[in-house]
Design brief:
Blueprint (H helix, E strand, L loop, with lengths): L3 H14 L13 H5 L3 E4 L14 H15 L3 E2 L8 E14 L2 H4 L6 E14 L5 E6 L11 H22 L17
Parallel strand pairs: 1-2, 1-3
Antiparallel strand pairs: 3-4, 4-5
Helix pairs in contact: 3-5
């Protein structure tokens, strides 16, 4: 019984360490204003609080830029002054380790796990008022897809889906939240 208490405490501490850094923005989907957005400037996605725990923010930024550019719905511009809206937030992945070696100095397997991170806001460029928000949701991924690609693809897909709804004037449906583990980056 005495051994179980320290193990339970250790498990609780490990679970607490797995929280996603950054503070997700409140949910905003202003479809009326989203319909008028044609150009987007994507800011550095590694500036928020706890960004030092995140890797790959530049990769996610580049992949979002490429995805939005290919869409034909939005143009990605080089400066905030040229944009109708600014995409801000925190994106990338966290890397954490699991195994006995890290805790007791014993030989053994140490597994590396990756957790995708993404909190996004689309802000009106002049007023800085939120138009749209998105929080990355763990879920199903394609074989050989990296964590950074998954975060970027989900974000682009959701923004384009909501923009299509905005353009048609229909309300946004509530998304489902599947849960799985992300592959390595």
């Amino acid at each position: 019984m005495i051994r179980i208490v320290p193990i339970l405490i250790l498990c609780g501490l490990l679970a607490a360490c797995q929280s996603t850094p950054g503070v997700p923005p409140p949910v905003v989907h202003d479809l009326t204003r989203l319909a008028s957005v044609k150009s987007i400037y994507i800011e550095d996605l590694g500036k928020e609080k706890d960004a030092d725990l995140i890797e790959g923010s530049d990769i996610v930024r580049d992949e979002i830029s490429a995805g939005l550019g290919k869409s034909g719905r939005f143009s990605v511009v080089d400066s905030p002054q040229q944009a109708d809206a600014l995409l801000t937030g925190l994106a990338g992945f966290e890397k954490w380790y699991h195994g006995m070696e890290g805790f007791y100095g014993l030989e053994g397997d140490l597994d590396t796990h990756y957790l995708g991170v993404g909190h996004f806001q689309l802000l009106e460029s002049k007023t800085k008022q939120p138009i749209w928000t998105h929080e990355y949701e763990k879920g199903l991924f394609k074989l050989h897809q990296t964590v950074t690609s998954r975060v970027a693809e989900q974000t682009v897909g959701k923004l384009l889906q909501d923009a299509t709804l905005a353009d048609s004037g229909k309300p946004s449906p509530q998304p489902s939240k599947p849960v799985t583990t992300d592959p390595a980056p």
